[in-house]
Hints:
The chain is an alpha+beta fold. It has helices spanning 32-38, 71-78, 88-94, 99-105, 148-160, 225-242, 282-302, and strands at 14-18, 43-47, 58-61, 84-85, 114-116, 129-133, 143-145, 165-169, 178-184, 187-194, 218-220, 251-257, 264-269.
Amino acid sequence: MGKLARPDVFHPLIVLAGCPALPEGDGDDDGLVEALRTRGLQARWLAWDDEKTLDADIVVLRAAWDYIDRLDEFLAWTGRVRNLLNAPKVVAWNTDKRYLADLAKAGVPTLPSRFFAPGERVRLPAGEVVVKPAIGAGSVGAQRFISPDAARAHAAELHADGRNVLVQPYDPRVEDGETALVFIAGRQSHAFTKGPILPPPGKAPVFDVSGTYAEESLTPAEPDFELWDVGHAALAAAAEHLGMAVDDLLYARVDVLGGPSDPQLLELELVEPSLGWRQLDATTRTRQQREFAVGVESALDRLGLGPLSHRRP
């Protein structure tokens, strides 16, 4: 009796991308490597700018939180890696908060936002405002203002640095925190509440020791369906705008203000959002990280990188 043929199984090289200050993330994603391994997928952490990322079959952005300071280099890199999750066109669109205008135009209830390019006169809404760069992460450069003169001065500083400015009315509901809705492969996964990050006018946010993001106070949440509806609407509008399927987005975090009577989108995070895994109990975290691994598996199949994709004669 002859021997059974040994299956020629392809093992794709998977990288979870951090940054030089956090090459293995901030700890929240601990467990993803094991979740992938359980599905027969080998993954390792690297800083996004490590040349070895170019050898990977697929790179999953997780903690590339210095990209704002190196945006041109970062966007060029997204086109150099073989396959990126989320995809380069998603990253290019979502790194600029002008995407909020696209979502508002599509009918997603969105916090009112005005954008001003360098050289444009900044028009402020009445009352307290938030002024921040249109391209920014981790609350860097975001400040609250009561004084219109101070707000315009901050906008002028950002303009002088060549940056587009985003102006929003300060919404007091922020004091109750934001609800962060997490989606995996287009399906709702879990949620958590983020305490207010922006301090009162005249104060600066407190950053973590890596200097890459403002410290946040996070707690688990069980949002009403009306908030989840905003999340689903935001994902659907983004996918349609980008010409892709919702489940092509491996991960997404939708930050929503307010309760069920009037929820509004604050941000849609598709580049490298913290997913709040540590807010889950052990059983739920294991189950939902398995969904993340299944999402990676599905992406590999779509890309022709499944386990039997490289069979040799």
